[in-house]
Request: fold
Amino acid sequence: MRRFNIATLASKTGANGTITADEVAVLRTNLFNGEEVWPPEVRALFALMHRRMPACDEFNAFIVEALSAYVVNELEPRGAVDEKNARWLIAMLRQGQESWSEIDLAVVRAVLEKAGDAPLSLQHFALEMTQCLMSGVPVRHAASSDAPAANAPTFMADPARAHPEAALAELPVDVAA
Reply:
């Protein structure tokens, strides 16, 4: 059965000011039906996530599952994340954002957990997000740069301070539950 275009559905989701469980069910049914997911549809899901509107718990779980599945299972190399895909994910998360949210971090964590291999740049990015969220410091991002923003914490300057996997394992973020 041909699905509706996810980009069209995403643009209409939350029209009443909140994302409902019924809207998430429609998105889920149309996204996870065995057909290829197209890049414009994924960009639409990022745009929906970046609207930061009130949403049901099902939305958080859906967006984490959908975006991490796309990055790890649809992009080549499947089952892993290479540097090119890590840079793309980082750029998509930074796009238009002035601060991180727990859902942003949950997407990165899910990608790292699902991927059999991921570059250190993505692990370091997850740690940067973690520190920003824990410190409560809003961060302005330069979308064209992989360098931390001028007001971002610079804890990664000392790689001996934390191993990325250990720090992520200790993080108390659970938006997908």
In short: The chain has one domain: 6-170. Residues 6-170 form one domain. Residues 80 and 115 are 4 Å apart (CA to CA). The first helix runs from residue 6 to 12.
